[in-house]
Each structure stands twice: as structure tokens, then as C-alpha cells.
User: Fold this.
Amino acid sequence: MSGPPDEFEWIAKGLAPLAEGAPEAFGLLDDAAAIPSRPGYDLIVSKDAIVEGVHFLPGDPPDLVARKLLRVNLSDLAAKGAEPYGYLLAIAWPETYGWTEREAFARGLSQDQSAFGLKLFGGDTVATPGPLTASLTILGWTPAGRMVRRAGARPGDVVLVSGTIGDSFLGLLCGKGLRVIKSYSDAEWLLDRYRLPQPRSGLAEALRKHANAAADVSDGLVADAGKVAAASGVGFEIDLDQLPISSPATAWLAETADPIQARIDLATGGDDYEIVCAAAPENVANLLAAAKAAGIGLAPVGRAIEGSGVRVIAGGAEVQVARAGYVHR
Assistant:
């Protein structure tokens, strides 16, 4: 079968297997799922949507699109210190996506839900003239009252960020055909970073224990650090000289005419899906040790200060940032 299936065929053959017999989902045969309570825990709920041509490139493989959708939501859970549990999916299919493309999408979901311990509990599927649009509501658990909020950073806290920053910004440029990277292997690696984020689920418990505040970095480090600062009622200083940068991004940086502006671009480009957090100085060593044990890079990049907003430093001096990150209009 190559043409587009109707919604009931798609649910029965494409989506129902993703429930994996979860009793909450009733085999996707009902109008709703039933989520049982878990004594001593809070149910954490988050939602992210992705749109073709905005969050992924037209022509990207459907399985990678599905995995990106799941992973950008998992990134939110990780930043909240939550254990993944399940998800609801809503997807609007253009007619150009037939059985082959939809089956690939389902395979991508299956691959990553197995890797991260999730099951599909329900959702909706509709047709659209385009573009492909998908929204996922993710559910997770934290011990009661222990979700890591954006609010909570205090003056004197150390600001840290996971992984490396700016890879997805460069990967998107590569995906658009811009020759910003000389090495073919580096360009492919960066494009993979854009297409397939790495949710830092291994940091969840450490964030609950040692961080005062956290958020995932989706719109850009400067922008999302600013959201944490605003929610906490403090200011942040971010030192671009301390920015963790991958080897391919470092090679690109060495070729730029304006290294400071290039670092600003990396820190504001977005789509990193890393975690920015604030921790008291006495907790930083434990946080770093936990990240190392989980195989996740974590680097101090600044501090929380009295005041408001984000002060960006490069070369020991404050620099002006015209755009802190991506904003949907």
C-alpha cells in the first residue's frame, strides 16, 4: 500500500503497536487514556510541536523527524528532572505522506520510545494541505514537589550548560546547502546534531538534587538563560569565552572574520536542546561529578547576579547581542 491511509487504518496499523499493550491506552480504541496516580510523585506534563520548514527541513527522513519530535519533548522533561513515562501524539499529514512515509515515522517513534522508556497513550491524526505538523504531549514523573523550575536561581549561583552549543545552528546552515564547513564529515556530523538532538535524560536526578533552576535550550542559550533569570528574579552573566564548543564548531570559528560575533551566533542560534541550569557554588562539584558519571558534558558558563536580564561577556568585556535567540512570529 503506497497511498495515504485513512485515519482509522493509520491508528490501527501504525499507531496502536506503539501503545505496546499499555493499560493506560486501551489499545487506542477509546476516546481517552486513563493515567493512574502514583503515590508520592507529581505527573509532569510538557508539549512541543514541530512544523516542516520551521523545525525540520523539507525532505528530512520521516523516521528522523519522528525521533526529533520525541527528543525535543524529552529534553523538556530532562530539564525538569523528570523520569519519562508516556506521550500523546497529534499529527497533521499532507497527502504526499503515504504509507511508506508514515510507516517510517512510526518506526522512528518505536526506536526512540524503546530507548527512553516511553509508550504512546493516545492522540489524534488529521489531514492537511501542508506542511507536515506534529505535536507531542509528554508525561513524566518526579518525586512530589521536586520538579526543577525555571524559578529558583539566586545571586551567586553558577550557571552551567550541558553538551556543546551552536552545533545545530551550523548544522541547519549545512542542511540548507550553505558551504560554511570545509570538512564533509564535519558538515554531516553537524547536520546530524540538528536533525537528532540528544536529550540529557541522564542529568534529571542530578538536577533535582543539586540545581536551583533549569531549562532546556531550544531557542538559544542566551534566550533560554534569560527565561531562567526572569523567572528567578535575578540577572545572569554569560561568558562566551567559556562556551563549550565541539571540534567542528571550533574549526568553523577559526575561519571566521569576527570571532566574537561568531560566538554570539553559536550562543543564540537555537535548536541545541541542551540544559542550562543554575547551582549554588557548593553544589557544583557534585553536579559536575554526576554529569561525568552519566557521560554528559557540563560546563560553567557564567553566574547569577543581582538585577535582571542577561549580560553577555566576551574577551573580558560586555558585548551587545542584537537577538538573544529564535522567536516565533
User: Anything to note?
Assistant: The chain has a mean pLDDT of 94.
